[in-house]
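Quick one:
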Amino acid sequence: MKINQNTDSPDAPACERPVRKPKIICGVEGGVAWTYTKDRILTLSPAGDRTNVRFGNGQMKDFSRPSRPWRNHWDTHWRIFPYGPVRLVIEEGVTEIGDYAFHGCSALCGPLVFPDSVKRIGRHAFSDCQGLTGPLVIPDSVTQLADNAFSNSPGIWSPRADKDSRFCEISGVIYNAEKTVLVFCPPETTGTLADLDIPPTVKKIGEDAFLNCRGLSGPLTIPESVEEIGDGAFFGCSGFSGPLTIPSGVQRIGDKAFYECTGLSGPLVFGDAVKTIGKDAFLGCSGLSGPLTIPESVEEIGHGAFWRCSGFSGPLTIPSRLKTIEASTFQDCSGLCGPLLIPEGVEEIGGSAFFGCGKLSGRLTLPDSVTDIGESAFFSCGFSGPLVLGRSLVSIGERAFTSCEFSGPLTIPEGVRRIGDYAFDHCRGLTGPLTIPEDAVVEDTAFADCAGVWAPWAPSNTHFCEINGVVYTADKTVLVSCPSGAAGLFADLEIPDSVKKIGDYAFCRCRGLSGPVKLPDGVEEIGERAFFGCTGLSGSLTFGSSLKKIGGGAFSFCSGISGPVSFPAGLKEIGASAFERCISLSGEVEIPIRAKVGCSAFSGCEKLSVVDFRGREVREYLF
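Output:
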């Protein structure tokens, strides 16, 4: 059959797209067999006699969002199943529909019919299926029905209360029959929360109960009877305004419970019973302000819980029962200020946990209980005093303290076994001798642009060695760092012929070095900003024949280097801004035929004429 390409586009309504020649694929998930035909009909049936004792006949397994096999088939075999199923047939004998089974199957349309054999419908089983329509009848056989099984599927969800004795409706809002769980509020609802007449018997705001109810406005006043706020309960309710108080009886705040409630403003006050704050619970609530005080009752805070809550403007109080500060928990809470106290008992600080909290100040003391600091955990945090690391610390992740403004000496505990790339990059206020434990693996760039503490530690660590005050890897193949206070002729450093790489930031701001620069023939790579700001260097710049790469900003602002410069024929890359503001370079320089050149590589080099391998002058982009 010839298919009209225009009507077959994903913009056409799912039910109107052309039916193709049937072709079947199939599989088994738990105790449920499935077949999927090219006419886009997905049929579920009991799997029959099976040896898998984990699942009974007709019992579907639970899924995560991306793990459903029929989703994988329409993703990876899009030529056969380009838009997902448009119709779902559930045959008699199927007993369970698993978590996330059909979440986001937006192409499904028409009514949804369950056989009387179904006993359980899992979490988000049919959420975001906005094409489903018609009355929804839940069989009496269903004994387990997740609150959010049909969330954000308004075409079938709203009408069900008057069809099922297990639910009731008050002012358009659906509750369970006992009125202890607020299950669903239609997203088109308008007015205030007070207008909904929520009964005082409600103990739980169900998962996704008010999902995207942007028409609701005014204060978000949660009834005092509530003990749990479910996952996504007020997700995207941007119309609410004013401060937020969590009632004294609430013990759990679910994942994304107040996600992007951007209209909330003023203080956030927690009741003393809260034990769990879920993942992304307050993400993007940028209007909340004042200090952030998390009560002592809290034992767990999920990752990203307060991410992008930039309005908080006071100190942060972290409860002592917390064992882990998860990734991105306070990321971009840029208004938090004052000292940061990490309580004894915290064992792990996750990646980006305090990323961008630039107004934190004073000293930072990590307790002896902390064993691991994740990547970018304190990236670009303010601080203005010493950094004290606990005795149990084992690992410091990449960029953990990059661009922090610590001052004074730094002591690395004896138990540390790894310091990641750029862990202390740009921590220019750190000073004094630094001792690194002998067994620690330290990445070359761990103390980049941090020369106040870098050079003296090398003799105590077998991974490195020191020659004429310059630190190298033990095999002398990488020149790691030269102290910023180094003075004298560059030639006097006597760089070994074994060196293959000049490390990132190796000579950054070594303004006391002078004279011409001649690198050994064996050097294959010059790292990023390796000679950045070395204004004392003067005269010629000579590269060896083995050079393959010059990193970004490698010689930026080396204003004294003069004369022409010649690149070896095997050079493959010149990084962005590599020779920016090398104002004394002059003459004509030829770019090797295979070399990639980054933007602004020769910016500000007004006396230089750059030509390509054909002899044509090149200025745009490079300058």
